[in-house]
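Format notes (please read before filing issues)

Several people have asked whether sequences and structure tokens are stored in separate files. They are not. Every record keeps both together, in the order shown below: the sequence lines, then the token lines. Line labels are part of the format and must not be stripped during preprocessing.
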Amino acid sequence: MNFIDIDIHTVVSGAAAVVGLACLLAIVRLNRTVSHWRVRCANLEAGLPALHREIERYASLSLRTDRQVKRLASDCSNVAGRIDLVEARGAAHVRGPGPESGPGQGLGPAKARGGAAQALDQAIDHARRGADARRLTVEFGLSRGEADLVARMHGRKTRAS
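Then the structure lines:
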């Protein structure tokens, strides 16, 4: 039998070669991973300007929306003030011009019972069922202008043949 002489230097040299080869393979793999991450970072950085534009667009939309909301809130507060004014005028109109007109005098039966708002609601219902302005004036105590308006706004539509 032939024995191979193996001394400690040969074993250490072989182990060093294996470790060196393992290190070389690790370096190659690490280099590929670093290259992959570089490409990925470059792609992400290329998308940043588009992302910045989107953010600016959303900020602009947000600013415009905020302005519109503030304008609408202002409009609504103006409308609320106008409604209060109209209601106050309506209450003064229902009470009448002076002390000679008592509660319910000069008003139709619906106004005497439930107030101007109820009379208007009932007049609208009757107009939808076909009542004309004259009938609305007589039954609900509406002025001629009010009755005409209710009849035009809520009355049945007539078609020209």
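For reference, the curators noted about this record: Helices lie at 8-95, 109-114, 116-128, 133-140, 144-154. Confidence is low (pLDDT under 50) at residues 97-113.
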